[in-house]
Queue: 4 jobs
Job 1
Amino acid sequence: MTDHVLDDLEAFALGALDERTAESIAAHLSVCESCRVEASSLSDIVATLPDTVPAVTPRPLLRDRVLAAARADGRRQASAAPRGWSFGSVRAGPLVLAGLAAMVIVLGAADLDAYHRLTAMTEERDDYSAIVESLREGGRVWYMAGKDSFAGSGGTLIDPRADGRPPFVLFHDLPPIPKDTVLTVWLVSPDSTWARAATFVPNGRDVQAVQVNMEVSGFDRCAVTLEDNPWGPRHGVAVMESRIVPPGQ
Amino acid sequence: MGALAGKDLGALAELYDRYGRLAYSLAYRILGESEAAEDVVQDAYISAWRGAQSYRRERGNARAWLLSIVHHRAVDILRRKTTFRPAPLEIAEAQPGEEDTALSAEKNVEYRTVREALEALPPAQRRTIELAYFGGYTHVELSELMGVPLGTVKGRMRIGLQKMRRALERTR
């Protein structure tokens, strides 16, 4: 048994530890009943802090987005069954993983190692099965060729058009990107409004599928930029792009 | 949660109707941007949707579970920002909350108790807890930011949470 970690439990409960320390505390909690009891008690107090936040009502559209994403996710998982649970197309950052690892140990909920193994095994298979299935169902396809430092890479935007199945981009040969940056997929409307469709980090594999979080219809161009932030307006220059030609034109 | 684990969209809708506003308010308080807050809430609910089978009620309620996912994701985004990190008090003052007429009287009492318990803390303890939880600062960063030893930061966290615990226990 390692030494008790009571000195850091308040910071742990508040999420105020760096990744390595949080992992160390979580590991200790998994084997130490007395520290786990204290951590649980502190977590109960910290769990009340959201009640101090001024209430702000989200746009009604958010409820629809959540349900639509779950519906699409359920169908995608059903088409690729069996598979494990994952955290979506955006890769979880180290802090999220550390936080979830801590939460998982406290809650006794699941095994993150199992998650990693399952994700690695199923994602690549899903990539290929999804594109084959989509094309079989008459999906529309547009290819974006990489430019400049992304020359040699590219992405195919696929709109499956099947009911409830979301569009996605199948990228190939993506180069590594600088630390603290992300790649963002944009859909551009005829009035040059850029809508963020997906944010992700290259996974290092030859092929990577990224789900698009909105319908393609109504847009006439798609593009990918390198961004410093995973939200907000576009700042980066397009590293790949393509016109989206509506059917019949 | 059992229905959610069974992939019942109605259960997810109910979970959203019950905690969606609170989840969004928390994400918005941390990030200060509506678009990013919406993304966090959507990600959190999809994580809950996918991970509901691993949920264990005896280890924490659904509300705490969901909000912990929201918190972790929002803070993760916040820590990736390399420029300005909004201070939680500034955001709260800039964005006054809405009058919450939807809450039951019982709930209103409970929420008011938590707010009062936090507000009753000495400013240094309160600010330490708020900057850690809503500002995403680690205790080491807080030590540098506030110009006090790390032990002082830990002490403020410990005493502050102890006082909140006692205040909450008195009302339960």
Job 2
Amino acid sequence: MRVTGSEIRFAIGIAFAALVASSGLTSGSAAQPGITTYETAALSAQAKKKPAKKRSKGKAAGTEQPASAQDGPPPRTPFSAADQAVAAIANMPDARFWADSETDYLRALPPKPGPWLILSTGGEDGAFGAGLLGGWAKAGTRPEFSLVTGVSTGALIAPFAFLGSRFDDQLRDAYTTISAIDIFEVGGKGESFLDTWPLHGLIEKRVTPELLKAIAAEHARGRRLFILTTNLDAGRPVVWDIGAIATRGDKAALDLVRKVMIAAISIPGAFPPGFIEVEGNGRKFQEMHVDGGLADQFYIAPDSMLVSTATSKLPATDFYIIANMKLNSDFAMTERTTLSILGRTVSTAIKFVTRNAIDRAYATAKRSGIGFYVAYIDPSFSAPARGPFDPDYMKALYEVGFAKGAGPAPFLREPADFSNQPKKVAR
Amino acid sequence: MTVARLALVGFLALAAAPEAQAAAKKASPGGGSFDGLWSVLIITEKGTCDRGYRYAVRIKGGRVGHADPSNSSFRISGNVGGGGATRVSVTRGEQSANGTGRLSASGGSGRWQSAKGECSGIWQAERRGS
């Protein structure tokens, strides 16, 4: 079929390109749903599927019933860089900080050193991380982390991972029972190609007052949970101290955490951005936040503390990095379409960026005397996917992650060599 | 053949029972009571099309169309009869899908099938606004 620039395909394509970009779905023999053909996918003719659930008509948290798709988004309340510089969440001054601010970061860290869990981007490939955590707990060797950070899909895993294995079933369900229809609707309203009102309902169901209460209790014990978004106006990543927010314990806190989690996975262009109410210079306005993956594929510390010239030591005993993606270069025939080329381009770029980030984390760990552990999706994983967020694909990946987590060596102790070059000869 | 795309193209293939089609034909767009914004789930049950998507659709004067009128990526033609019988055809390029079913005041369901029969499945609709 010839590409005619259709908006419908463009919408799915962009979304998928972004998802692929963060998930590595294009690698291996996994098909590229929505973009490429399925002739190569080994699929059964009859899809096993759960019956579509009856959906509630009610308002989802943080969403508005669309008056009309013809209506564009309302204009924003203007604000200046000076307003942004002092903007804060009402009554929650410690809710967040710039991810590149050393001072704020050091202030927000756990008071005592401990193992850190660092969860990467990856879209539906977050099923890998969810599975690995489940298997790791089953093996009985999963520690209690003093800090958990999450970016994009990692932000969705992070609260459950933070709370420990008693939430593993919820985590498994979140990554094995949902599909595209639970996340987005084709047809945006002027600021994205897709609408995420279904996702709002999903987050409302998963992020409950009880969950926040449990997070607040752990925060009080000195543990920390950070989730990353990108403030698109400022062009800077933001760390949300979810435990500090949860400690407030009211509806405003619950609403904010839900908004942050949705913004944290809002791939710009594909999904609508999240808007966060703030106050600054005596004015109220809304910041525009999108997926934290714009800035970092995973978050450990401000860049200035990770660069090779940094001298600071981070108060961690171990880094456990779960990269929810394949990192190896894989062959995949790229169609002569804009989206196919863009999708392949971005997914390739993300792999290289992530590899370099892992390498930098390793160097930081060595410099600081911190144990280093990294896990990512094995290059051999090649389950087919019938479109984004295919539950069968995600179940298969969850199982792979689980087996890895339950196995004798879930993590590598140093970055892998992806150079595809002959083994270096010791000199 | 690009079956995956066909799923996208054929999303509103509210294919189904002949009697529903007949009813829909008889009922000139009289389904004004169904006017509004709907969210339609398209689920593939047979074939290797993508598993399923959700689409925003607008019914106006009993006629089914894009929720966003500026969207010209594919053609939707169809209508909803006064009793809710629904018939819709979707065409994009050389591909098309057809379907029928029935809407109620707040929801609806039916079946769809691609014109060449590669894929088929069900649809479900829920009203999202006026």
Job 3
Amino acid sequence: MSKIFYDHLISFTEIEVQIDRVAVNKEEKEEMWHLVDEIIHHKVLGCILDSLSKKDHQAFLEKFHATPHDESLLEYLKEKVSDIEDKIKLELKKLSKSILKEIS
Amino acid sequence: MRTSSDELRNKLKLKNFEVKRKFAKKHPSALAFLKEKGLDLGSIRKHSAKIIGAGALTGTLLLAPPIEIPSLPNPSEVIEKIKLDELVGLSPQEFLVSALNQFLPGKVRPLIRDEEKKLEQLFQSTINISVKGTLEGEHLNTTYGYIGAEQHLRRYPGDTLTAHGSGVILQEGMAPGLGAWGYFASSKTDLTPDLEETEKWYAVVQTLYLPDWEKRLPYLRNWYKYRKVLIIDVENGNAVVASIADSGPAIWTGKNFGGSPEVMYYLGGPRYKKGKVLLFFVDDPENKIPLGPVEYNEINLPEISLFKS
């Protein structure tokens, strides 16, 4: 099982379609999926750290490192930044648009 | 002009590099912390899988549903809860949908072992097919999730879309690449009716995200190849036995499984592109259960007939 606590907020179906259209084999497709996955993690973590106050960074990173799959991390973040879920969703929306613009 | 595969990969690599560079510049202390812990954000899924795997070994229910979500009731409890007058005239399919509505959490999540056991009993008693969440020790990352529409797969070199049927079923088109197990046959003449059915009723599961996929690759690749699964749309009860023939979808699509055009058409009709489903392994050691739609309204099991008028 591999799961990150914000997975349920991601839905990049159009990017998948673009990759499916051109990938010539499974390995290539999975390599591109992984590249997108890495981009997502950096953007989402960046968004979270930008939203949290500096003093909360360490505690959040400790928790994230210990249980990256735990959905209660989102609740923890909401206690610090009430609209964090909306912020992450917006970041993901912007990211999806920007990737699509670059790869289309 | 259409982007080629190399172009797309290079663009993604460039974007990937740029995003990482910006993250490092803006959050150097976070990066240092992660580095100190030996964690690269690009490998966060592997790290997560290790933690969850370790939890499973030690018996810690890391994936247990949050406390506020009650675990699923027993099938017998569900039957007891349904008022008798509501049962009169219910077809097995209506009964199953009604039971699943009461069984399942509204929000898709991995089910715990006990919940899967209860569903196995429910399917056995309504659909009359023996299914398992865990079969021969193997278990998918989730048995409850979203299925998305896939394209036809090339069955042999030179295969064409029109050879896959006619009408609406061809609308999804043909995948440009091959399925995870390559061609189904080396030539058109080698394509047996069984293999034809396998492609027609194929399912896609996220083997690539299994925690031990790379470690046990030769065994798991073989074990999952054309493995039969029962897929049930939880909202309408439509059920189909499919065969695993590809790996995916990407985890960031919000989907957990994929279905061939025929599978999707049967589960929800021509406009069905995404649906909430349960997917269990079919326990069929003698290979007796055919692929394709499961018309369980036609069966008349003693357990079900109790509830029919």
Job 4
Amino acid sequence: MTTGTANQPKLVEELTEPLSPGRAFFNTGMTILSVIFTLIALVPLFSVLLYVLINGFSSLNTTVLTSLPAPTGSIGGFGNAIQGTLIIVALATAISVPFGVLCGIFLSEYSRDDNRLVEIIRFGVNVLSGVPSIIVGVFAYGVLVIPLKGPSAYAGGFALAILMLPIIVRTTEEALKLIPWELRLASLGLGANRFQTIARVIVPAAFPGIITGVMLGVARAAGETAPLIFTAATSKYWFSSPNQPTASLATLIFSYATSAYSDLKSQAWAASLLLVLLVLTVNILARVIFRRRF
Amino acid sequence: MTQLTDQQERTSKELVANTGNFQADAVFRLILRIAAVAVVSMLIWMALVVAGESLPSITKFGLGFLFDTNWDPNSDAFGGLSFVFGTLATAFIAMAFAVPVGLGIAIFLTEDFLPEQVLTPISFMVELLAAIPSVVYGLWGIFVMIPVLRPLEQGLSGGSSSGYSLFTAGVLLSIMVLPTVASISRDVLKSIPRSLRNASLALGATRWETIFRVMLPAGTSGIVGACVLALGRALGETMAVTMVIGNTAQIPNSPFAPGYTIAALLANEFGEASGGLHVSSLFFAGLLLFAVTLLINVLAEIFVRRVSLERQ
Amino acid sequence: MQNRENTRVEQSSAGGVVKAYQVQDMAFYYGTRKALDGISVDIPTKAITSIIGPSGCGKSTFLKSLNRIAEAETKVRIDGKISLFGQDIYDPRVNLTRLRKRVGMVFQRPNPFPMTIYDNIAYGPRLFGLKDNLDNLVESTLKKAALWEEVKDKLKTSALGLSGGQQQRLCIARSLAVDPDVLLMDEPCSALDPIATLRIEELMLNLRNQLTIIIVTHNMQQAARVSDHTMFFTTDESRIGNLVESGLTADIFSSPVEKRTEDYITGRFG
């Protein structure tokens, strides 16, 4: 150890001496690389959005939105696919919302006193969210298409409901967890039981968040194709009954994308535009709601 | 004195007698438990149905299904090797791109290169990548990505590539799983205490020395969890892959040749499958995919969980 | 007890004070918010200087300006001048990694890296390209930090398995491994129990002859026990911290010049 005065000149020199070239190069190089990687990721996003917007809007018109598919050559549309998507997704929502919201409430509100079960359920929900959508379709095929002897809106709705479940459960749980714990104590302290507390105080307070979860689920379900191909299949006609094959936007994009006819291709872009707009709106809305409310 | 006893009596009566509340609570709790268990039992139900339907195929082909490339519904010969290979190959290509790029993004979003007001929209945009429907990626892949990649693939493969290939599918997949790697890794890196980073800087480390020697090692299990989760997505992703992979049941000798994945097989053939053994073999292929993704998701869950336990 | 400490302090100051830091009319800004103003002080080398003051008075900020770690967290700016052994450390030519190698830092909560004890100590030396003789360095550093006997059999186990007090001593050792001239300590005992605190204080007194130690503490007894010099910071109604008084610990605690110092030390505010 040298004394302070002795190492004074040495220090002046050393402190201003630049980083060794190797370390300096590594540091700057990695910074540049991470910037490039981030830009790389944003290129496909903007490219997808741009192409969908341009090609979609240029082929969107009222005929396309309101009429049935026509034999190639004449002017047709995919009104029935919009109708079908709405019906299938509504079915899916009707099945998944009660189970999903109740499950979310359970995970959030009973995590302190039903610890073990909550852990297991949460684990299961996370695993369920990782099941490929095509497998969910295969499952729905086994459960509904085979017994009903054919594809139907029921089977499609059932498959989409399973895909929506984890989203609704998680968002509900998150929304409820954002409500301060003291609010529950305050309600219990006034003599309310837990059911009253949850139903009258907690759930209303978290309502926007829960709705957001449902909307995110709807957006996801509306864009899902794989499980619909062989559960709801497709149809050239207006919806007649939920136990009949039903058209949907997602399957329509799939079958039109590989079509040889350019008007069908442009209809695929138009249908994509509708789905992308739905997804974008819901996701942005969800962000706004979660940020403002909580 | 008597008043007090009266009050005591009333209080004890009221406190003991009013059990209605507790019953309501118990019923409510029971309903919640049933709903929660119902959600999770979907997994078991799914496993039972898919396994049950594939039984005829399992008894007929057994493990040989995994080693046979011959898939011919007309002669009732079903071997899944081409699909298993294609599934693994595309997922591998996807991970090779998505892991480094995703980690780069995660680091970029946690460091202070740009102010928070700029980083937040960027991370939102990265997450948006995950929200775009798979079939839209497929459409974009056919009309935008393949024309861009085709010359490159033709150059690399000696002119034979059509652009519909394992490689194209892998690249498209990597875009789709990128948000999974990036946003979970970002959360993991953000949860590492700031003082750890400062301690390294205070010892004279540069920013990137700190990232590589302290931050990434500290976040390893969470980052591995993110990658495993992304792998699960890549293996099971269907529509986009089906639309660009070329759907040819073969084991290609080049990544720029067309292939087939299990998910694409299911999407293409389930609708038109006739004959018990064909359908059952499709279920068998589905069961394989289901089992692998289930295993992978359980693993990822364990890794990610370990992170949250460490942080407590 | 108090008397003995005082004698020791006087002896140290009698030997003539060599300045480690010279701070001249320094003001510190977080973004546009001023956090410190008008700080001028000399900090002597080979001595322990404590910084005391009520919470929010900017004592941690001051400490973080001495190794320029504050700018790793947010945008900051300083006016005035801080020099280390005569070198202005805010000179644009100053290489931050080299500055921080010369100025070690120990944080409020023990924060060993999630790696082995050995790797924690070897972390700094490895950054600067040291590969040989690491074993000896690790051993001598751990001995310097009075931790060797406790950990010599588990060098290759995770540092997170140590107790809080051991972790904090490991963090001190980690800083010592790169042979710094200055050791900054930001309330190093605030997360520790009294016995662990005592061991850290013993360690500081042992290290006192070898390097400059600057410690921020909210514990006035601690400042009185271990430090030779004391700086008292406080804040005015505009929430800008300033230095009220500095000098020998004995003087500050027995006969403060400023009323505010006296009030704080006697517990009337803060």
